[in-house]
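My current task is to audit a protein record that another person submitted. I have pasted the whole thing underneath without changing anything:
***
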Amino acid sequence: MDTNINIRIFDKDINFLGEVDNFTSLFYIRKWETYGEFEFHLSKIDKTLIKKGNIIMLNKDGNRTGVIEHIEINEESTEDITIKGFSLLYWLTQRITVPPAGQDNHSFNCNVEDIMISLVETNAVDPTDINRKIPKLIVDTSKNRGDRLQFQTRYKNLSDELTKLSKGSGLGFTIDLDYRNKQFIFKVLEGKNLSYGQGINPPAIFSKDYDNILKQNYIESDVGYKNVGYVAGQGEGAGRQIEIISNELTGFDRRETFIDARDIEEGGSLIDRGRLKLSESQQIQSFECEVDTREYKKTWDLGDIVTTLNKKLGLRVDNRVVEIREVYESNGFKVEPTFGSPIPTLGEKIKQMTDSSSGGSSGGGGYDKSYTFNQISPKEVWKIPHGLGKYPSVTVVDSGGNKVVGDTKYIDINNLEISFVGGFSGIAYLN
């Protein structure tokens, strides 16, 4: 892999503006099940290139791209300028899943890839309301991958719904920049099985004994793990429809959770909804490593299933590469992949807990709404126009996933402000 990196800059119309090669440090994080992120530092800024909304691309790699969302100039040191942003998939966090006209839900009964592509097409590429269209975004042709699934959605965050489908199916997704044809392409991805036991592809085995792991941190956790789901559909009291997933588990091996699926239409699959929800609460078994960079993107890449050996711990684990952190600094280039499922941040756990009520039914039979507010720049007062038509409960986490308590002031049923003792960025979950 080429470790000599230039940051190419484009505007929103994909016009090439120039290159940045004087950064002092850069990291770019690729993720399989959601959008990635990046950060780089400059000693001086070219305001014709570095603007919010402009698009970056590392060298000419359309898969390693992103949109600038945050520029920070330290008053005490104007020679340290921080630029942050996210991969192009971040645009999908700005859309929700609007049902087709006249329908309560957008419902599917097909393979997962077709669901993912259809959700992006109807909510961002060719929506009924042309104002919702993301300019120059197209979808790749479906290869009909993934299991058949009954799935429905109503006014949920589009990016979050795609992440659920990814976690449940093993398929990844991305938005690539095709700068030659001036378009953005949404693609569903399928990794290769490079594990030790398969006999089709040359295996990718990571071990200190093979000198291809420089540092290694092993995580095994059952915190938050659930494996038995009581999925509740329509109806009230004793007459409510209940399906139980993995009811054969017993004793200490059994970890139950309740899954509210009241919004599932009659005839829909409670089992499929439950399996997707349980996929968000899996056992954690992962390796966070710094690896030899020579084979990266040559023999293995993001999304592939690889084998990790640790003879000292007596472990041989097959896991998917779910995240890769690329670090470029003056003293060299590092690749830090995560094999397996990392421990969810507090923000991710709160999102999982509030998700079941987002777009779901309230006790009165109506739809109880929730709202996620992303405060990208550090501020002491967050002004949140949520439009929920009520006085919602509020949970705030900072960019590190730590819960923060502030003073919430309700302006009216559609607006509120939260004041903190100091400025920071993060996410507010309103329910």
